[in-house]
Write a structure and sequence with these properties.
Elements (H helix, E strand, L loop, with lengths): L4 E4 L5 H13 L4 E2 L11 H11 L2 E6 L1 H4 L2 H12 L3 E6 L7 H7 L5 E2 L6 H17 L22 H15 L3 H9 L5 H9 L5 H15 L1
Parallel strand pairs: 1-2, 1-3, 3-4, 4-5
């Protein structure tokens, strides 16, 4: 089972992020943070996606550096898509870029400046505990066994690579993991395309993506 708290941060804020993790885990709540929790020789993108998908809270160490980080933006996008609660822990007096504001505008900002940060960590712990206690564990949402699905026929690996490359133009290198996950149990390539299209932010992008794929196969 993945830790309930995912820490998103930009590399220049590494010391602050690790200090935050130490404080949270001292309070009995397990965190996931890269690179500490990425296994040797593992696929970084896959590990990060799985950790976000299994988390219930994302704490974003927000600064000017993370505001400009494409990696942080992708992590926040993924958390929003998976409906993971996002808590921006703002360590500098900066406002979010437009790409981040889209996902964070309705969230509760927690300012952690000026120093010292210890009182802010106390407030953060209270908020995280409240959020985790309010959120129902994902593995207890249903007590009914899942129906047995028929086995799917093997999908053309060449076509899966084409889908991955097309999707990567929208969401970057995490496309490989997204397509791989969607292909598990899928009964056709069209099912895979429809599934991965849900990763795109707007209906226009989803329609364009599906149209481009279909034009390539006709």
């Amino acid at each position: 089972m993945s830790p309930p708290v995912f820490i998103s941060y930009s590399q220049p804020d590494h010391d602050c992020a690790m200090e935050l993790v130490e404080r949270i885990e001292r309070g009995g709540i397990q965190c996931w943070i890269a690179p500490r929790d990425i296994a040797p020789s593992a696929d970084w993108a896959a590990e990060i996606i799985d950790a976000i998908s299994g988390a219930r809270v994302m704490i974003l160490v927000f600064s000017a550096s993370s505001n400009d980080s494409a990696q942080v933006r992708r992590e926040v996008e993924r958390a929003a898509h998976k409906k993971v609660s996002i808590l921006p822990f703002r360590i500098e007096n900066v406002l979010p870029s437009k790409s981040l504001e889209y996902f964070l505008s309705s969230q509760h900002w927690m300012d952690a400046f000026p120093p010292p940060r210890e009182p802010h960590y106390e407030r953060l712990m209270s908020h995280v505990r409240a959020t985790l206690s309010d959120a129902a564990p994902r593995d207890t949402l249903s007590t009914q066994p899942s129906p047995r699905l028929p086995e799917a026929a093997p999908l053309n690996p060449v076509e899966l690579v084409r889908i991955e490359r097309l999707l990567a133009g929208y969401i970057g290198p995490i496309a490989r993991h997204v397509v791989k996950a969607a292909a598990i149990g899928a009964t056709s390539l069209d099912v895979v395309v429809q599934q991965v299209a849900t990763e795109l932010e707007t209906e226009t992008e989803r329609h364009e993506f599906i149209k481009r794929w279909r034009s390539d196969v006709t």
